[in-house]
Please model this.
Amino acid sequence: ETGVTQTPRHLVMGMTNKKSLKCEQHLGHNAMYWYKQSAKKPLELMFVYNFKEQTENNSVPSRFSPECPNSSHLFLHLHTLQPEDSALYLCASSQDRGGWNEQFFGPGTRLTVL
Amino acid sequence: AQKVTQAQTEISVVEKEDVTLDCVYETRDTTYYLFWYKQPPSGELVFLIRRNSFDEQNEISGRYSWNFQKSTSSFNFTITASQVVDSAVYFCALSEADSGGSNYKLTFGKGTLLTVNP
Model:
């Protein structure tokens, strides 16, 4: 149990659907992250929130929309996705954005876009 | 050029063999941090170890050991007497400050898939 939960664990959606991924951390951390993990590619950082403020957006297409209502919850809203968006989406949290802090990861949501 | 290079894509060993996973990094910063994570088939990355750039002391934790050498920009990970439960993808990562200097970003290597056969 890492203290970071993600729902759903698996999601299949069509290109015209709208869905949301949810992440919750029970560690009292202030920073939360979304990563994309595709086959044979390094983990790609998508978004970072620190104290509920978005501090990083790594040129992610607008069909991915993050939301951080409080320090414990992070959402990723999905709209009009493409098949190449199929991947494992990992949420992580850390105490803050200091370099020494390890990130704690959730189990991920396996997304398939048809 | 990749900031974190894990040249071994896949390694397969037989149980009880020792195995070393290589990691080479690239940075211009004098202050940075290095991490190793393990990703079992269940999916979540599990933190194993961190090192800051000023601490080159090697570390041993049970069957795991890490060799940090700034001179070669390497942070290698050795598993002694490997076990089937060690089978996973292992990621090396580098944490560097952004241009503002206050926020750090973690950059991962592509990972090494370790398979330990009985």
